[in-house]
UniProtKB/TrEMBL annotation:
Keywords: Hydrolase. The keyword rRNA-binding does not apply. It comes from the Bacteria. This is Alpha/beta hydrolase superfamily protein. It comes from Clostridium sartagoforme AAU1. Residues 21-251 form the AB hydrolase-1 domain. GO terms for molecular function: hydrolase activity. SUPFAM superfamilies: alpha/beta-Hydrolases. Pfam families: Abhydrolase_1 (PF00561). The lineage of its organism: Bacteria, Bacillati, Bacillota, Clostridia, Eubacteriales. InterPro entries: AB_hydrolase_1, AB_hydrolase_fold, AB_hydrolase_sf.
Length: 271
């Protein structure tokens, strides 16, 4: 299995396809497996690099608390291992936060930056949502954690219209939300406390795409608008009638936006 060592911890990664490189950074509850359905299309003519952060997926668990800048170095370690340069870096939510910090520290390695459903700081409102998730995780009960975290990730219309799919997903996630996963989630959530790059955004001078979802209740539209205003060389797209989990609610729009921005030198169009 493809692992690298960073600070004596195993970091899991995968490489799919050949061509221009895109490195994908997961949201907080995700892993490399979350992108399985998108890999055939994204890797058709491009090299796609997936990785699990520490405390995610197949990567090692941590023994104590840490900050997100540790995950920045995890990404750097994978890039160094694969000898990559001028990559396209994509992050969603937690992964977008890590991507922003990576861009500030290692922008010389980047070609383009893509941020979906991302915030530039953990404000008081978001921190208290995180603490609610921590409280739910501390119960070590899968149903409690699901009910507190999952419904708000989706837009109400999608959730209600796709309740059969959601109920199937509930059964799958109950098996995922075991004690070790929930303990890892607590560390991941706490790692984002104190995160704030809002006043540094103007230092990011690479081509950047920021994408919002109209009904994102975790990282609302105003958060991405702030990033768009802060990064000089940036573009902005709003996905209508969509919640925080944009790639699941609007998979066609997700793929078209991502490939259009990265690999096609023309105006991005949503179909």
């Amino acid at each position: 299995m493809p692992f690298i060592k960073y600070n004596e911890k195993n970091i899991y990664y995968e490489v799919h396809g050949e061509g221009e490189v895109i490195v994908i950074l997961n949201g907080i509850m995700m892993s490399h497996m979350s992108w399985k359905a998108f890999i055939p299309e994204l890797s058709r003519n491009n090299k796609v690099v997936l990785l699990d952060f520490l405390d995610q997926g197949k990567s090692d668990k941590m023994d104590s608390l840490y900050k997100q800048d540790l995950q920045v170095e995890v990404v750097k370690a994978v890039i160094d291992k694969l000898e990559l340069n001028k990559i396209n870096l994509f992050g969603i939510s937690y992964g977008g936060e890590v991507a922003l910090q990576f861009a500030l520290k290692y922008k010389n390695l980047l070609n383009k930056l893509i941020l979906f459903n991302t915030t530039s700081n953990t404000n008081s409102w978001l921190q208290d949502i995180g603490r609610g998730w921590i409280n739910a995780a501390e119960t070590k009960d899968a149903e409690t954690f699901y009910n507190v975290t999952i419904p708000i990730i989706y837009s109400p219309s999608f959730y209600n219209k796709n309740i059969d799919w959601m109920n199937k997903r509930r059964k799958i996630l109950y098996k995922v939300f075991k004690e070790d996963f929930l303990i890892s989630m607590i560390r991941l959530i706490k790692s984002a406390e104190g995160y704030d790059v809002k006043e540094k955004l103007n230092k990011i001078d690479i081509s950047t795409l920021i994408v919002s979802s109209e009904y994102d209740f975790i990282t609302p539209v105003a958060e991405q608008e702030d990033i768009y205003k802060g990064i000089p060389n940036s573009q902005y797209i709003l996905i209508r009638e969509c919640g925080h989990a944009s790639m699941y609610e609007k998979p066609n729009e997700f793929i078209n936006i991502l490939k259009g921005y990265l690999f096609v030198e023309k105006e991005i169009k949503i179909v």
